[in-house]
Amino acid sequence: MQSELPVCPVETTLSLISDRWKVLIIRDLLEGTKRFGELKKSVGNISQKVLTANLRSMEESGLLTRKVYAEVPPRVEYTLTETGYSLKPILDAMVDWGTKYKAQIM
């Protein structure tokens, strides 16, 4: 977990999910556990290095867990924690707002 969080709650939330990729990773993990390759494919045009860095950061922040299976080839699965799932209302609000915005612009 981050040692020093901002005083402002909005800034705290943004510090955890402000990256474009993190929000998309959360969106995909809200559906359930996914493997690295599944996330890479569903998130879109993201490099392996950037996806790995974001997943590590989110694990460190307590938003997801990483489970490594002792198999050949290695299998790694990612699952949102309770804290990660608690972001669902925020993403739902973003979906609603984005839908309304798109309808307004078109």
What would you note in describing this structure?
Helix content is 58%, strand content 13%. The protein has 6 helices and 3 strands, in the order H-H-E-H-H-E-E-H-H. It has helices at 9-17, 20-29, 36-43, 48-60, 82-85, 88-105; strands at 34-35, 64-69, 75-80. It has a 3-stranded antiparallel sheet. The radius of gyration is 15 Å and the shape is globular. The termini are far apart. The mean pLDDT is 93.
Short account of what is shown:
The protein has six helices and three strands, in the order ααβααββαα.
User: Which sheet architecture does the biggest sheet show?
Assistant: 3 strands, antiparallel
Low-pLDDT runs: none
Number of strands: 3
Strand order of the largest sheet: 1-3-2
Q: Percent of residues in beta strands?
A: 5-15%
How much helix, percentage-wise, in residues? 55-70%
The average pLDDT score comes to: 93
